[in-house]
Amino acid sequence: MPFISESLQQAADRGDWEAVSDVLLELDPRLDGAEILAWSLQVLTQGDFADSWQVAKVLPKLGDLAIQPLLDLLQNTELEAATYWCVGRILGESRSALVVAGVIEHLSQDPPAELAEILMRVLTDMGTPAIQQLTQLLAIPDQRKSAVLALGHIRHSQTIKPLISVISDPDAEIRKVAIEALGSFHDVQVPPLLIAALADLNSNVRRVAVVSLGMRPDLATEMQLVDQLAPLLQDFYPGVYLAAAAALGRMGNEAAAIALGDCYQKNTCLADLRRQIVYAWGSIDLPITFAYLRQVLWMANDETAVVAVRSLNRLKNQQPTVAKLLGEYIQNPAANNSPRLRQEITVVLGNMPDLLGVEDIVRLLVDTDERVRWQAIYSLQQGGSPVVAKLQQLAQAPTTANDLLAEIQQCLNYLQSES
């Protein structure tokens, strides 16, 4: 095809990759496969997205001949994101076992996140053929781990059965990947398997089982998840007991709040777990949680108290009582009232609806710490005209102290100049 090759070269020299693609579409892949492949790869690497999309119609006609060069192309770190996407789409439309083998090889090398995402999308686009081929590889000892890793990336219900088949594998990494992947499915077979995995001898397996169950608050009553998860608060491994606290928080019920409270009050409860419990309470918007957090605020050290304030901010159904508590706290000389904590409280009071926290924020305009004063001004600024009206009212009130009156007036001037 000398004439055709010359035409292709002339178009390439002009940078007319669209013309190159048009010519390639007319060639017979049975006779000119190598030539088509070479030119197609040039279009992919040098043309724009439209050109790549056009040549994507050509490459599938080459069958297995194009697979390895395309897989190699994904390793080229200098290509544009659109090119990677296009290559991934071409591979994903293939039904070749070579694609599955190549993707497994790439995934086993712990590729960068961007490449891993493309490779996962290839397997997902392949669908059932990829799952069938990967399932067959589970029977081959030196391929099982890579096959499970690949199956774990495919979020398709047909992977449930092969993943279940390896949840008792001697290799803890295989068990972990299987449990983690199964946890993403809302299938009746899965929750009992996750609960069983809570007793796994490997801490990573237990952790992913805890995390997965934490995503199923809908099963909290039916599967007695609080009772299942609470013992994991006593686990020896931080990854497990911290995940258990977070999972119990997601249950969102009183039983979970009490289980967290029982653990918090133990002398053996470690500082990092206590902070995680305090944070988890913020996900349980109930009066009992408010009571726990109030106790923590008054008794805990500065770092844990800051977490308590942030959790109080998340109790949207308890906002009036939260505002009252924080207002009393910042006025109490006996409180653990560090500047950092006062600043955090100012943020929360500024988030209160219906001007609930405004008067308490105003008191912080005369705080001894400059950061707290500026946070107070910023929080007041977020309230807009209703806050300005409230400040004007306080400025005219005969009970307002002179030093505070001066700061209110200065704040008003600042807010009005910014509006």
Task: Write out key terms for the chains shown.
single chain; 419 residues; mainly alpha; Leucine-rich Repeat Variant; 26 helices; 69% helix
3D structure, described in words:
The chain is built from 26 helices and no strands. It is about 70% helix and about 0% strand. It has a domain at about 165-250: Leucine-rich Repeat Variant, CATH 1.25.10. The N and C termini lie far apart (about 75 Å). The radius of gyration is 31 Å and the shape is flat. The chain has helices at about 1-15, 15-25, 30-45, 50-55, 65-75, 80-90, 95-110, 115-125, 130-135, 140-155, 160-165, 170-180, 190-195, 205-215, 225-230, 240-250, 255-265, 270-280, 285-300, 300-315, 320-330, 340-350, 360-365, 370-380, 385-395, 400-419. It is mainly alpha-helical and about 425 residues long.
Helix/strand-derived class? mainly alpha
Strand content: under 5%
Q: Count every helix, treating DSSP H or I runs of 4 or more residues as helices.
A: 26
What Rg do the Cα atoms give? 31 Å
Question: What is the rounded distance between the termini?
Answer: 73 Å
What pattern of helices and strands is seen along the backbone? HHHHHHHHHHHHHHHHHHHHHHHHHH
Tell me about the largest β-sheet. Answer: none
Number of strands: 0
**How does the overall form come out from the CA principal axes?**
flat
Looking at the structure, the CATH topology of the domain at 167-251 is Leucine-rich Repeat Variant
Per CATH, the class of the domain at 167-251 reads Mainly Alpha
Helix content: 55-70%
